[in-house]
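Why run this: before we spend reagent on co-expression, it is cheaper to look at a predicted model of the complex and decide which construct boundaries make sense. The entries below are exactly what would go into the expression plan.
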Amino acid sequence: MLCLAVAAGAQAQELPSGPVTLADGRVTLGTDISLSASTKNDESAWFNYTDYEHSTLRLMRIDVTTDIRVTDRVSFLGEVRSENGQRIRPYALFVRVHPWKDRPIDIQGGRIPPTFGAFSRREYANGNPLIGYPLAYQYLTSMRADAVPASVDEQLRMRARGWRPSYSIGSQAVQTGIPLVTAFHWPTGVQVRVGSDRLMASAAVTKGTVSDPETKDHSGKQISGRVQWEPVTGLVLGGSGARGPYLADSVQKLLGQPHSSTERAVGFDAEYSRDHWLVRTEGVWNRWQVPTLPVPLDAKSAFVEGTYKVFPGMFVAARADRLTFNRITGSTGTRTWEAPVTRFEAGLGYYIQRNLLGKVTSQYNSRDGGLIRKRNQFTVQLEFWL
Amino acid sequence: MRPSALLSVLSAAAVISAGASRAEQTTAAVGMIRGHIDVRRAAPPVERRPTVNDLGASPAHGQDFMRSVVYLESAPSPAFAVAEPQSASMDQRNETFVPHVLAIAVGTTVDFPNSDNTYHNVFSISKTRSFDLGHYAAGHSKSVRFDRPGIVRVFCEIHSHMSAFILVFSHQYFAVTSADGRYQIGRVPPGRYTLDAWNEGEVRESRQVEVPGDGGAVEEDFTLR
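The model came back. Tokens follow.
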């Protein structure tokens, strides 16, 4: 007697959706869509506000990335981005020349990837295991590139007002402040990269500075460099530096006499991964030489971030982040020129599909200044990419 | 071309109850199904996500999308047959899984050695078998045992362009095509079967075949368009 027993269901996993290829693989199109919603609005607290005037925790972001390989040695790469359905902005748009086939050297020109730092090189949303950004790359300080305070007191009055600082010299337009290093704008210029998987160095000459690479009325040039070393597989150490005039030409003209308006930035970063662990840390130190102030304004930031995969398709992640500033003395006393901020964020991510990721996080912010000094909020995010 | 949902019936097991039936099995003639698969429309290569941070030109594709798997949709097998534990290997080499398609029997343990100088993180969130081997370096290997029939899609978490298929069967009547497209399924008991030709995630063609009572070879060629 024969009877057939159907074996356990063998349903195929949904096929992955890779990037779209055209022209025999010479044109590749990828996309990245993320949708975030939070229990609280960022208005009035401004902890997660960006210089695009959106909260990173309440955001719909659509990215389209293109790689056009003209020859084996020349490619055009671009990325356009729209946030909350608003106009599409070019995020990256550059030509990459690979002069020698067997030598790992690239020359890139146009709106290029940032040279400075590690976090801003995580180009896709799923490179961030949490939803919020590190403070150094997102939190708006009261510094502006198109306006300067007339005195220390004026600077101190803008503490914790990075979402809308205003100064008496320069632009009177309603504008946000700038972060230490922006993760939302890429610089325009030329970059040379050389190296291997183990050791890589890059140097760039770009317009603007790491804080504000897109100031329209800015003819100053920034020099930046980065060295990345992988002494053993899984451990990556990086160091970055940047220097350039941060003030807009219009402010320079207003100030008249020769002066220094240099922004210097130094960064270090480290990443270690093994088995189901990934730990990253990064520190950034910035110094702005404000021509109208007697002392430079410093900002320091550091974060530690860890990710652990608890089982296939699910991970937990956490980040501890701190942003501090140097103290300056005005008529009312000595204080930090900006309000220090502390942020903790923890959450979990679950892969619904290989290219569909859901995240839930809880973020706690604390600031030594401003109307709202503490904020705790839950955020969910859905990310899809090709 | 049939929808991939048809793959939910990858295999069936025959339960033979009496000793007489067992005796028939052991003495019956067995046949062979063999042939050639011509893949006219190969799946496009999985490109890297366009990345603006990588150094250098994009690497050449190393994946072999022409390999197909031919198998019996349902097949008789002895009720109490005990399969020998088997092992197989899927290497990670030049940011590619080698082979790109692996067909194995239930109970097989697959090793995933890392032959690159960079980390890989092999994982699958397939319902048939989900696993995540974590980060491990060159010269190391981790293994996974597959105890359920079905299709397992394998990826590298670090390199999004790396992907592979593992087809897990509850019988032995399957074959992966050779580089020139040939296949051969041996020791097939006489009877009528549905023969499926699978390529890159879907059954591209199914046919009814009959292995005659006196055994012998059945030729079945496919052209997958």
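Residues 111 and 148 of chain A are 27 Å apart (CA to CA). Chain A touches chain B through 62 residues (CB under 8 Å). Bring this page to Monday's planning discussion.
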